[in-house]
Specification:
This protein is α+β, with helices and mostly antiparallel strands and about 80 residues long. The protein has a single domain, classed as Gcn5-related N-acetyltransferase (GNAT) (Aminopeptidase, 3-Layer(aba) Sandwich). It has helices at about 25-40, 55-60, and strands at about 1-5, 10, 45. It has a three-stranded mixed beta sheet with strand order 1-2-3, with helices on one face. The longest helix is centred in the middle third of the chain and has 15 residues, at about 25-40. The chain is globular, with a radius of gyration of 14 Å. The two termini are about 20 Å apart.
């Protein structure tokens, strides 16, 4: 799932069932989001990953993404 706010694009979630991982489906999904955002006029795509999720970090690095020096902030509005 991705979006574009007119300034930056975001990838929110990419999910592939564990039985179907490592055969290119995740890369194809990310590629589809990228193409859609390019078509919408997006120049930069961001995503956030927990530092402990090394598998996701390696996945996105293989797709050309790089770790950037940023501060990510959040605020809970409701207890879940």
């Amino acid at each position: 799932m991705g979006s574009f706010d007119g300034h930056r694009g975001w990838v929110y979630r990419v999910a592939v069932h564990p039985d179907h991982r490592r055969i290119g489906i995740g890369g194809e999904l990310v590629g589809a989001v990228e193409r859609s955002l390019i078509h919408a006029g997006c120049h930069k795509l961001n995503l956030q990953i927990r530092p402990s999720d090394r598998g996701a970090i390696k996945f996105y690095e293989r797709l050309g993404y790089a770790i950037e020096d940023r501060v990510s902030m959040g605020k809970r509005l409701r207890d879940e």
